[in-house]
Amino acid sequence: MSAHILTVDDSASIRMTTKIALTGAGYQVTEAVDGLDGLNKAKAGQFDLIVTDLNMPNMNGLSMIEALRKSAAHMGVPIIFLTTESDADMKSRAKAAGATGWITKPFDAEQLVKIAKKVLGK
Amino acid sequence: MTSLDPIQVFRTEAAELFEQIETGLLDLLNDLSDQATIDAVFRGLHTLKGSGSMFGFEALAAFTHHCETAFDRVRKGQVPATAELVAAVLDAQDHMKALVSTPNGDHEEASNRLLAALQAAAGEPSAHATVVAAPLPKAVAAEPSKTGGKGFRITFRLPVNAMANGTNPLGLLDELQELGSCTVKADLSTVPTLDALEPTDLHIGWTLDLITDKGRDAIDDVFIFVMDDMELTVTELAPPAPAAAQEASAAAAPAPVAEVAAKADAPKAQAADAKHGAKQAENVRVPAERLDELMDRVGELVIAQSRLSQLAGSSADIHLRAVSEDVERLSGELRDTMMVLRMVPVGSLFGRFRRLVHDLARETGKVIELETEGETTEVDKTVIERLADPLVHLVRNSVDHGLEPPDERVASGKEKTGRVILSARQSGGEVIITIKDDGRGVNRERVRAKAEASGLIQPGQMLTDQELLQLIFQPGFSTAAQVTNLSGRGVGMDVVKKTVEALRGIIDIRSEPGRGSEISLRIPLTLAIIDGLLVRVGSGSYVIPLSAVEECLELSLEDDLRSRGRSFISLRDNLVPFLRLRELFETGTPPDRYQKMVVISTGDERVGLVVDQIIGDHQTVIKSMSKLHHDVVTFSGATILGDGNVALILDVTHLVAVGQQQEAHLRAAG
Amino acid sequence: MNVETVKHAFDHVWNGQDELSVLTFSLNGETFAIEAINVQEILDLLPETRVPGAKPFVAGVINFRGRVIPIADLRRAFGMEATEATIDSRIVVVELTLDGEPCLVGIRTDKVHEVTTLPRSAGEPPPIVGMRWRPDFIHCLVRRGSDFVIIPNLEVIFSTQPARAAA
C-alpha cells in the first residue's frame, strides 16, 4: 500500500503540480481546495501525510492544522505546509499550531518528494 | 489535453484571481475599512505570487510581491486604504495580466512606473522601487559537502509534542544512519512514571556517534523542521582516521531553545463571513465543451425517449408503457438537471462592469455610481458569454451619452452623482436584463437629424416615438456628434441588437428627455432546449417557441374569407395582423377546413400565424441550421421529432416583424 | 475564369499525387466522383424536410444521426433535369470546408458505384469554352474508356449557391 497524501491548496495549479509530483513518486493523492475542505477530508479519511497551503479562504492552513491536532485521530500525522514567506514569523506560527515541517515556494517536484519521503520515513 | 498542463491551469486560475482581486478592490471603494475585503485582496495577490513563481512567471511573481507588500501594510493597519491606493493596485493588476499573457515581454519600464505609483500611494519610501525579474530565492540548497570522513557526537532531545505534531523520531534516526555509520544510545532519564505518562508525548533523548563524509549541514538538514524547538548539540569527535580536517568548526549549536508553547499565539480562525463563504462553495471545474457534449447526449436521449413514447402509446403492452413512462420522467429530470448545470449567476457578468464604470469615471471626469440588482439570477452560460460584449457597449453608452458631466447635472437640478443601474430578473422562461441611467435621455432631434442625414428615413417622415428610438439600432447609426474614445470602441448598437436577437431575445428602449434611458434585453433562459408548440402547415411540421405564444384561436371560415386581402383579425378590440403560413411557405396545399391561429408576441407587438393544425406541446431540442441555410430568416433552428423527421423552428422575432411590416403597408395604403 | 485558375484547380485536386481515391456515382446519366476522404457515409434515402424559402439547390434538410444537415441537389448546379427517386437512389454525406469551417452536406445521387482510384494521367482540366457547365464548378475531368468522370469543385459550388432565380 502506497502512502496516502492529502494536499490542501486553493490554487488549482499548485494542487495539480503537487499531485503530479506525488503521484509520480508512487503516492496516492487526495485533493482539498481550502482549509475547511481539507479538515473535512482529513477527518473522513486516513492519511499518512497532509501537505497544506497556509493562506486560504474559508479556513486558513493554521486553523486547519490546529483543528486537526485537537482530534486524537490526527495526532502524529505529519503535516507539511507550503509557504512563500521565508520569514520566521509564519513558520513559527504554523509550527506552534502543530505543523511538522514546511516547504518554501517555489519548489520543484524533486524537493517536494524529498520532503514527503523525509517525514513519511521508511 | 490542455487541461492537464499546469501552466494552462495557472493561467485560468490567474484569471480567476484577477477577478477576485478586482472585485475586492472595487468593494473596497465602498468601504475602505472593510478588513475582510482587504484580507481577500491580500490573499489573492499572495496566491498569485506563489503560483506565479511556481510556474516560471518570475516577472509576475516579483512584481506581485511588491504589490503584496504594499497591501500587507494596509492589512496590518500601517497605512490606510485610500481610493488612490486602490486605483494604483487596479492599474498594477492590469499590468499583472500582461505579465501573465506575455511573461517574456519587455515589462520592466511599466513595472517600475506602476510600482513607483503604488509605493507613492501606499506612503512607502520609493527607495526600492525597482523590480528585477529575478527568481525568488529557491529553497535552501545544501552546500557542497566537506571532504573526508568525520566523526560527530550528536545529542538531541525533541520537543515533548514532536510526535503529536507528526515528527517521527525513528525517521530522524534512520536519516542520520543513512549519513554514515553510527551508534545510537537512548536517554530515558526524563521519562515520567507510568501514571504521569502521556502516550503521545516524547521524553526520550538520544546520543549518536556518527562517522560520515557529509558535513555538519547534512546533520542540520535532518533536523531542519525541529531545529528551532529542540535541544541539539553536535560536537566534532577526534579524528578517527589519521588525516584530520582541522578547519571545521566545533562550535556547538545554539543554546537549547525553550519549548514553544503550542497554540499560544496561533491566530483564531478568520470567521469567513457569509458573503465570501457562499462564493467559495465547493466547485468542480469542468471544461465547457464537456458540458456541451453532455448536453448533446441529453438532447439525443430526449429525442429517443419521445420515439419510445410514441411506440408505447400505440402499443397495448402495459409493461412497455410503464417503462416508457419511467424513461420519460427520468429523461425529463435529467434534462432539467442538465439545464441547471449550465446555469451561471449573472453576477459573474456584472462583476466586470464595476471596473468598467470605475475606469469610465476616471476617463470622463463624471461622477458615477453603478448599482447592480439581481446578481444571483441564473442564465445559461452561453447566454452569459455572448451577452458580455453587448452589455459592455450598453454600459459605455449610458455613461458616455447618457450621463451628464457633474456641473451640467447640478445645473439641471440633479444630484452630482450619475447613476447607472444594471439589473437582472427572471420572468417566466426569460431573463430580463436592464441598463438604466438617470442621464439626459435620448436626444430625439439629434437622432432624427442623424437618421435623415444617413438616409435611414425621409426628411420629415412621420415616426412614432418608439420607431424613432429604434433607429439607434440601425446599422451604422451612432448618436455621438463626435465619436469619443469610449463609445468609439467595440461593437455598435446594431451589433448589440443582432446579438440579442441571435439569442432569440428582444431589445427594447425607453427614454425620457432629461430623466434618463432604459434599455432592456429579454433573453430566453436557455438556448439548448425549449418548450415548443408543434403545428402542421400543409404537410410539414413546425415548432413555435411556447414562450412567445399568447393564445390559440379557431379561424372560422367567415373570418378567413372576410379577412382576405386584409389579413387582420379583431382580437378584444385590437386589430392583430396575421400571416397565413401556408402561403408564406408556399405549400401548394388547400387550407384545412378548421384552420387555427396561433397568436405570438414579442414585447408589445403581436401577430397571428394561421396554421392547419395544432399538434401539441413539444419538448424541443434545438439544432442550429446549417451555414447553407443562413439566408433563410424565417427559421431560427430545427429539431428532430419523435419519428426521426426534422421540424423547423419558427423565428418569432422575424415573423412578428413581417407582420408589423404588413400592417404598416396596409396602414399606408389606407 | 481563365486558364490559370482552371489549371490551379486541377493541380489543387491532385495535390502532387498520381492517383486519387474517389467515390463514383451517377446523376442524370453523368458519372461524378468525390474524393473518398471527404465522404462520411452513404445513406438510403431519408425523409426530407423542405425548408421554405431556401434555394432550390439546398431545398431541404435531413436527420443525419441526430444532426440536421442540408440536402443538396447537384443537378441544380449543372442545369440538369430533376428526376424521380429510384430504388438505387442514395444520399452521400460529405464534409466540406466552407469559410474555414467544416460543414456536413448530403448529396442526392441516382446511384452510387464504387470507391476507385483515378490516375492523374487520365485527368484534364475542364475546357474553358464549349462546355455547358460552369468551368469553375469542375475540378477536373478524368477520361475512362469513351467517357468522362467529373470531379466537381464542391467548395466553389456550395459557396456560390445558384440563386433562386436560376432554378
Automatic annotation (TrEMBL), chain A:
SMART domains: REC. InterPro entries: Bact_response_regulator, CheY-like_superfamily, Sig_transdc_resp-reg_receiver. CDD domains: REC_CheY4-like. Pfam families: Response_reg. The keyword Endoplasmic reticulum does not apply. SUPFAM superfamilies: CheY-like. Keywords: Phosphoprotein. Gene3D superfamilies: 3.40.50.2300. The modification 4-aspartylphosphate is found at D53. GO terms for biological process: phosphorelay signal transduction system. The keyword Repeat does not apply. Residues 4-120 form the Response regulatory domain. This is Two-component system response regulator. It comes from Xaviernesmea oryzae.
UniProtKB/TrEMBL annotation, chain B:
Keywords: ATP-binding, Chemotaxis, Kinase, Nucleotide-binding, Phosphoprotein, Transferase, Two-component regulatory system. The modification Phosphohistidine is found at H46. This is Chemotaxis protein CheA. Residues 529-661 form the CheW-like domain. It holds the Pfam family CheW. It comes from Xaviernesmea oryzae. One of its GO terms (molecular function) is ATP binding. GO terms for cellular component: cytoplasm.
TrEMBL record, chain C:
GO terms for cellular component: cytosol. It comes from the Bacteria. Residues 19-163 form the CheW-like domain. SUPFAM superfamilies: CheW-like. InterPro entries: CheW, CheW-like_dom_sf, CheW-lke_dom. It holds the Pfam family CheW. GO terms for biological process: chemotaxis; signal transduction. PANTHER family: CHEMOTAXIS PROTEIN CHEW (PTHR22617:SF23), CHEMOTAXIS SENSOR HISTIDINE KINASE-RELATED (PTHR22617). This is Chemotaxis protein CheW. The lineage of its organism: Bacteria, Pseudomonadati, Pseudomonadota, Alphaproteobacteria, Hyphomicrobiales.
